[in-house]
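Researcher: Structure for this, please.
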Amino acid sequence: MVKLNKILSLFIVTVFCLFGVSFFVEVNASTNGIGTVNQTYSRTIVPGATYTYTESDNGDPQKNYVFEYNPKTSDVEALAVYGENAFGGDTLSTNIALAQSRGYTVIAGVNGSPFDTSNGTTTGTLISNGRIISSNSGVSTYDSFAIKNDGTMFIGKSNLTFSYKTSTGTVININTINKQKKTDDNNVYLYTRDYYSDTTSLANSTEVILKIDSGEVAVGKQLVATVEEIKTNVKRTAVEEGKVVLVAKNIAALGNIKAGEKLTFDFVNNDKTYDWNNVSQSINGFYEILKDGKPVNTSDPSVHPRTTIGFKEDGSIVLYVVDGRQPTFSVGLTDLACAQYMQSLGCVGAIRMDGGGSSTMALRMPGDTKLTTVNSPSDGQERNDADGLLICLKKDYDQTVGSDTLLHAYPNNVV
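Model: Predicted structure, token format:
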């Protein structure tokens, strides 16, 4: 028997070394949020990026999916995605396919922001590759997970203001970028081609088409554009490439601008804590649930599928999904349990993203040519979401490491 145990131990170590598969059992974990771990395994996706699957029981069955990478030591980077348009929503699989058609090599992804269910647009601030894709002016209601150009990250509320100056020097404040105008309100809206093919306005408005002369819609940057056409009492003006559209109740609200006039737009960061000028990717969640290594904002007792994004002291980023609303398979967690689990993984900060039927994680395993959804979305299929966070290779990388069989560890046996 001793000889057999030695042989089995040698075999397990050999599998770990060859295939990057690890497994372990934790018999009692009363404060880790997910309860007693019944089985778990980890898998190296690419060097510096790992996937861990865990089955646990905290009084209810739980299926847990974790993807972790360190931007400093791995050859991967994050990308905030929103489909073809910020309006309408897309599944995670659709976002992945679109990113790959644009030349990205995606190895992992999760769903992102809570959204306006009437139009699929994020409720907060979305930044992709430095461009403002969608945002409200002022301090956001929602926390965001933001990644800077140097790979460092933070969780915080955006505090951005948008405006333009007319040729007479009048400054007009812009209330939103790429959010739908639903009523006959007094706000000023700005639309870019990232939003949709038209403004989607539900109320008759004055809609002004401008040709971009220089610059971009990005925090800390300027954009100069020339008024091409002014339309009154209209809806759904087309938004074309190389152009932007201003929308308001009337021309007076827009500063009585005229055709041929040049406007200078400013997109300003007012946050004194975080430098949004250098944010490359950002998606908003609901709120922070782990701050300085301690649970916060965790009074909500409801149990649901969850998506959480966190980070560690060393700069590692952790994506976590737990299945739920499936009583005999996986029930889901409270905010507190999610915070405790992220804490047990070594995170010092974490944010609750959109959950419920939106919670989705996809991975490309070594040897596979495409990504697959690894969890079980509670709707029975993927949901159309406002956006998502993808993890992509920085350069071409050969993942052909074979189609090895994963071993699963149980308390009393290995199968």
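Researcher: Any notable elements?
Model: The chain has three helices and 26 strands. The mean pLDDT is 91.
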